[in-house]
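To close the chapter, one final illustration. This time we ask the reader to focus less on the individual chains and more on the assembly as a whole: which components sit near each other, and how the overall shape emerges from the parts.
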Amino acid sequence: MECSFVGLANLADSLYVIQEEVYNLRTLSMAELLNLLNSNFEGHEAERLRFLKKYPKYGINVEAVDHFVRDIVAFVTQECARYTMLPDDSHFIPGAFCWIMHECLGRESGATPDGRKAGFPFADGAGPAQGRETSGPTAAILSTTSWDASPFIGGVALNMKFNSSLFTSPEAFQRLRDLIITYLRRGGFETQVNVVDHAMLQKAKENPDDYRDLVVRIGGYTDYFTRLSPEMQAEVMLRTEYQAV
Amino acid sequence: MTGNIFQIQRFSIQDGPGIRTTVFLKGCPLRCLWCHNPESVHPEPHTFFSPKQCIGCGYCFKHCPEQAHQMENGVHVLDRTRCKECGECIKGCYSGALEVVGREASVEEVITEVLKDLPFYQTSGGGMTLSGGEPMAQFEFTRELLAAAHKAGLNTCLETSGFAPFERLSALVGLVDLFYIDCKETDPARHLEYTGVPLAPIVENLTRLDALGAVMALRCPIIPGLNARDDHFQNIAALANRLQNVKEVQILPYHPLGRSKLERLGKTDLNPDWNFPEKAVVEYWIKEVASHCRVPVLQG
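The assembled structure is written out below.
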């Protein structure tokens, strides 16, 4: 039987925040942290944003956070190996491939110390949580392949998204190929590539927190989509729509 | 050895061969009317202020030694005449309303960051690109970064306006695999008017770099109403034809996205009416340059 473990990134990111806020800096006690979470950060947006943005997150290739995923995966693997299931003593097979379960389970779960509010989706698959791939796809790949995925034979998926404006030439598609080859060479299991379309930009406009890492690049110009003024967002969306046609 | 940078961008795929990391150096001697990275012009760090992101936590009001953060008619404003860019207000702001652009970084620190993506460079034949700002304005830092990257076996590219003493450019010939040199305007009077610096030394540098065998690509920003002229297109082609080692011409159509950055810097946009050119217009520009040119002309 396969057991999929959903929200690996949220767990790693949360453990890092607890380590820093409660143990290293001692800005709050565990009880105070729990109160914040139970209140769903109500009236404490500054604390939520501090948890979300001050600390490095899984997916930007920082060992201090990535190692938590390594520890969690080792623990999960060990636990799965301890039990078998009736009637045939079959094993539990761990995986990090969640289909739509990250949304279902996220809806049922309270706020988490990584700055995720109650009811929001968990991270999908084995990659960074939504909006936290702030150093781009190479860093996300390095984080995702920083731990041994081989015991997770239930599947380990990394979802990547790209702006369509990035792929304007045959060379650009070759770069995507290079990216995926490097991912597989490093022990990557499965990746899904999404190209950002007009509908996704609309969602980013409405829920900027989930799309903080969405980058607009034109020539030597770079900026985060969610930081553009509404007028400029409209311009970018207009162009994306044209390109999709 | 340290320098001023404002961004290290991984997975750059439009700044040279393969998968690359582009390091943006801060500070530029030019003042191009269409600059799309206005935060790159001055070498010192700047405060980006986006009032719409403010959640009203009050941190900046409490920690600003100059009382530059004020409420005016219920709106949070940053008084730029008081702000001394000390960065105190930014330290506790996680809403994205206040951010620092630019920092001092050592050669070692930058190269460590760049080398993180070594597996991707090895798969793709990529490496490091230096951009800006104007990297030549921090010559020693630029040279050391390029030398360190070359030593690590990376492909290296340099994006420059070409406005620098020739000895500095020539000193980099063995360290740079591909020079991206701007060709912003080919009429001398207009060049001075649009960029604030003369054209002649740039053309001379191009000619002398060519004689040294430096591999080059020309990058041409095209701005409707300024340099989107047939004579300029023909002159770009003529220049590329004259220089043996120019391998490619890139046409960079104007876009107004720098406007969002100007707002955050607290500066006014002098060209509020400028907009994206139509696709057909851009295609015409490329065709016009290509019809006179011996090397490929692409949209950059």
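The first strand of chain A starts at residue 2 and ends at 4. Chain A has a mean pLDDT of 89. With these observations in hand, you are ready for the problems at the end of the chapter.
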